[in-house]
Design goal:
Blueprint: H1 3-12, H2 15-19, E1 21-22, H3 33-49, H4 54-75, E2 82-85, H5 88-96, E3 106-110, H6 115-128, E4 131-135, H7 144-149, E5 156-162, H8 174-183, E6 187-191, H9 203-206, E7 210-214, E8 226-230, H10 232-237, H11 276-293, H12 295-314, E9 319-321, E10 331-336, H13 341-350, E11 353-354, E12 356-358, E13 363-367, H14 374-393
Parallel strand pairs: 1-11, 3-4, 3-5, 5-6, 6-7
Antiparallel strand pairs: 2-8, 7-8, 9-10, 10-13, 12-13
The structure holds pyridoxal-5'-phosphate (PLP).
The site of pyridoxal-5'-phosphate has 13 residues, from helix 5.
């Protein structure tokens, strides 16, 4: 299919991208109509038929298996290495809380991590006396591997970092970092919130141990969905922190005084009931991406459009771009001289252009999704020029 026709077909299935100039997939992706259909049909069925029929039990088991299967395809692993979660942060917590931490153990991380990773890291630091060693990566443009290498030592039990940083949109060199971490026996835990569905990911090739992803961002699924990959080593080493019937082999703990047998697969990190309309929406989104849109096409389209946005912004006087052009995908962070990022985001929203601001480094971030067009970027550029001169006139500009 011709590129423009394909994008038109995709946009026809995503009302949100026609309603707005939607450049904020890094926060929430727009949902295709198949997601609405799937969620609606499961909700209606549950309401009309109830949720306690034998058929429904079979159905939910199959639906969860389908979700694990789709995620396994996306990440290049086996379905039994995937647990379903509610979001990225769940997966990161399961990994970090899964160690029997001892005082003096160390975690190596970076100064580019989202609170979804920072929170669990500092939680174990406070509870168990773990030392956190933070690599100062700036915008992620420099020699990331050497900076992280200097912090890894025998006490390092875990290295926790993003594949694609949420603040400047830099893709970090995971393969090399993983090799260094494994030399001292540390597990590598990856925050895949901005990479899953925006760049190719193969957890086996990267060699990482845990890879946590959301459903609601670049994968265009509903809120409350996510997944996490565990390598076989991680499955051997990580303990359960939250446990329930979904974690245990059937019959375990029954009757009282029975036995505690976690499932042999990553499914043991699941706990109890899930919101099945959301899982149905997640499966529908992933199937649509794989079968109808195509992951290879998605990755190359996002890379092209991200670079297009980068270059168009670079042409504007007074715009400083923080995203390293040689290691980026669909996120571009920038500042406009004389404009406060929060005010800029508000003023763009007034013009129906949806982007967000980032606190560190203080900047505006756009997300170029596979469904966006060059026209969307041009609208943003035009609006930036107008807003900049308006802010200057009203004296609301900052220094
Ligand atoms: C890099 C990164 N990690 C974690 C999160 C939190 O995501 P979730 O809500 O899926 O836990 C985000 C969300 O913006 C993010 O960008």
């Amino acid at each position: 299919m011709h590129k423009d026709t394909k994008i038109e077909v995709i946009r026809a299935a995503m009302p949100a991208v026609r309603e707005h100039i939607y450049l904020n997939t890094g926060t929430y992706g727009p949902m295709p109509s198949v997601v609405l259909d799937a969620m609606r049909s499961v909700t209606e069925r549950e309401f009309a038929n109830g949720r306690i029929t034998r058929e429904n039990y079979e159905y939910t088991t199959q639906l969860k298996a389908a979700a694990r299967q789709e995620v396994a395809f996306l990440l290049g692993c086996r379905p039994d290495q995937i647990a379903l979660t509610r979001h990225t942060t769940d997966g990161i917590n399961l990994a970090i809380m899964g160690r029997n931490w001892q005082p003096g153990d160390e975690i190596v991380t970076t100064d580019m991590e989202h609170p979804g990773a920072q929170g669990p890291i500092f939680n174990v630091a406070r509870r168990f006396g773990v030392t956190v060693r933070t690599a100062r990566l700036g915008t992620g443009a420099g020699d990331v591997v050497s900076t992280i290498a200097r912090l890894i030592r025998p006490q390092t039990r875990m290295v926790v970092l993003s594949h694609l940083t949420w603040n400047t949109g830099a893709v970090l060199p995971l393969r090399e970092i993983t090799e260094l971490a494994h030399r001292v026996g540390a597990l590598v835990v990856i925050d895949g919130a901005q990479s899953a569905g925006s760049i190719p990911v193969n957890v086996k090739e990267l060699g990482v141990d845990v890879y946590a992803i959301p459903g609601q961002k670049w994968l265009c699924g509903p809120e409350g969905t996510g997944a996490v990959y565990f390598s076989d080593d991680a499955l051997d080493q990580l303990q359960l922190t939250i446990v329930g019937y979904a974690s245990l082999v059937q019959g375990a703990l029954e009757p009282i005084g029975g036995f505690f047998v976690p499932k042999p697969t990553a499914e043991r990190f699941e706990v109890g009931g899930m919101h099945m309309p959301a899982i149905a929406g997640q499966v529908a989104a992933l199937q649509w991406l794989r079968e109808t849109v195509g992951y290879d096409w998605i990755y190359s389209r996002i890379a092209d459009l991200g670079h297009y946005a980068w270059h168009r912004l670079a042409e504007l006087e007074g715009v400083e771009i923080l995203t390293p052009p040689d290691r980026m995908a669909g996120l571009v962070s920038f500042t406009v001289h004389g404009c406060d990022p929060q005010q800029l985001v508000e003023a763009l929203a007034d013009r129906n252009i949806i982007v967000r601001w980032i606190a560190h480094p203080y900047s505006v971030r756009l997300s170029a999704g596979f469904y966006n067009t060059e026209d969307d970027i041009e609208h943003l550029i035009e609006a930036l020029l107008t807003v900049r001169s308006e802010l200057a006139k009203t004296g609301r500009a900052s220094g």
